[in-house]
Design brief:
The chain has a single domain, classed as Metal-dependent hydrolases (TIM Barrel, Alpha-Beta Barrel), CATH 3.20.20.140. It is α/β, with parallel strands linked by helices. The structure holds zinc ion.
Length: 260
Amino acid sequence: MRIIDSHAHLFFDSFDDDREAMLERAGSEGIAAYVHVGTDLESSRAVKRLAVTMPNTFPTVGVHPHDSAGLDEATFDAVRTEAMAPEVVAVGETGLDFFKNYASRDVQIHAFRQQVALACELDKPLVIHCRDAFEETAEILGEIAPVRGVMHCFTGDPETAQLFSELGLHISFAAQVTYPKKTEAIQAAARIVPEDRLLVETDCPFLPPQPFRGRRNEPAYIVHTVRRLAELRQTTPESIAETTARNAIALFRLPLDAAL
Ligand SMILES: [Zn+2]
C-alpha cells in the first residue's frame, strides 16, 4: 500500500523529539510522501529547509487565515519570493476561518485574495482551509474557476463537496470520517466525491483518528482514515491509497511515479 499524506505539519515542535522515528513508523505503514504545509512565513521557510533532509516531503508556502493579520506588504513580498522556488508545490495553507475569527473577516479575505492571485501567477495549486466560510470561499474561487487546488480537511456536506468539485477543486478528508458523532454530513460527502478528486491527509499534529483522540496525531495513523474511507466508498484500503496517491501526484505535480 502506498499512501500520500496530502497535508501534514511535520515542522511542529511536538515532533522535535522523535521526528525520525515517527517518519520510520509512517514508512512501515506505507506512507510514501508528504505535502508539507507551511502556515506562515516562518513555518513556510521551515518546511523548505526540512525538505532538504526529509526525502519525499514537498513544501508549500502560505499564510493561514489565523495568521492573516500578520500579512503586511513586506511579509507578502517575502512569501511570494519563497513560493516561487521550484520545489514549492503549492500556495497555502490559506483560506477563511469564520469560526475562530483570529483575524477580522476583511483581513482574512484580503490575505486569501492575495494568495489566490499568487497561485494563479505562479501556476501552483492552492491549499485551502475553510471553516464556516463556504459561501465566501466559493464566491472568491468562482472568480478564477476552474481552480487547481484542494479543500483540505473537508468539513462540509455532500452539496458543498459537489459545489467545490464543480469549481475544479480536490477534496481532502482527514480523521473526522473516523469519528462516530456529529460527522454524518462529512461521511456522506466522503461517499460522493468524484474518484479523481479524492485526497487523504492527517493534518498532523492535529486531528488524531478515533483510537488516538486526545493525543498528538502522526502520519502513521492515516491508515485509520484510509480504512474508513474505504468502508464509506465500499472499496478496499489499497484502492483508496492508490487513488489518493495518484490524485496527489497529479494535483501537486509531484516528481513521483504515477504508477506503482
Ligand atoms: Zn493544516
